[in-house]
Amino acid sequence: MSKLGKVLVAMSGGIDSTVTAMLLHEEGYEVIGITMKTWDYANSGATRKETGCCSLDSINDARQVAVSMGFHHFIIDIRDEFGDYVIDNFVEEYLAGRTPNPCVLCNTHIKWNALLHRADAMECEFIATGHYAQIGELDGRKFIVKSADEQKDQSYVLWGLSQECLHRSRFPLGHLTKPQVRQIAYDFGYEELSKKAESYEICFVPDNDYRSFLKHRIPELEAQVKGGNFVNTKGDILGKHQGYPFYTIGQRKGLGVAFGEPMFVTEIRPDTNTVVLGSLDDLVRNGMRVARVNSMKYAEIPPDLEVVTKIRYKDEGALSRLNAEADGSVAVEFFANVKGVAPGQSAVFYEGDHVVGGGIIHSSLRWDD
To answer: Does residue 106 have an active-site annotation?
Structure first.
């Protein structure tokens, strides 16, 4: 038994999770690798060849590294757990006119829970992943801290982790850059792995075509929603669309109608199958309401807390003020106007590099309306 303890490492077969296992093994932890089968590509309706974390090649890559380094590796099937929650939510959110972020939900509700459950069964004190993030501590509370690699930072997708998850999690790559991780793989003798390409796709939408996925998932959907109206902000009909679930807030391309000037999706109204179009200025908001909030750094969001709020993964963030509401939601007031606040996406609150917490955008607001 290692003095550092046993750690269960989530191994997708990619370079990041593989180097995570390597580093912990070299550091002296007793490593157990685990690869989670979350999805069958054949069920997605995708036309492209199976790739990514759920492919047989990726599973074999993870197992081969474990064998070569001398630690145990297991494959677990969580397709039922994954499908019931993540995919059903993905579909329901689009049908509700919102834009979901399935990777956040998967991390928070599926992968970490699955890891903790198996870690307990295997008597592992810790779990580890290849995320580019770090963990800080204040008054006994753990919270996510941005990665040392600004370009690879994944703190945005980890806002939902509970205190139990954070106290038992390890992120060995948090202080490294991607080039350093590739060099480590090369130095360990895994030259092919060091050059392995990354996937930025949703695992169950391998061709990045979520519209085709929805049609495959609900065959009657297109017939039910096709032919709704595009309207402007005054309510004037501008043309016909293909169905409200196939559009997202801020979308400009792929509208299928020429308007003579740039038009953007500014609102989606599921009840009437209506998509509202407007100018770029019509996307401007100075506030929003955020639900399903997880306060990470503090037990509760302090009143009038000034933070930087990110509303998308690659968003630079905007200065804002937070105030908790009686129903558990958080009202966000932006100090300057922002564009493209999309209900269903994650909002993550930062103090410097520290993640204060986050939640799901419920609605956008104009405080002066």
So the answer is: yes
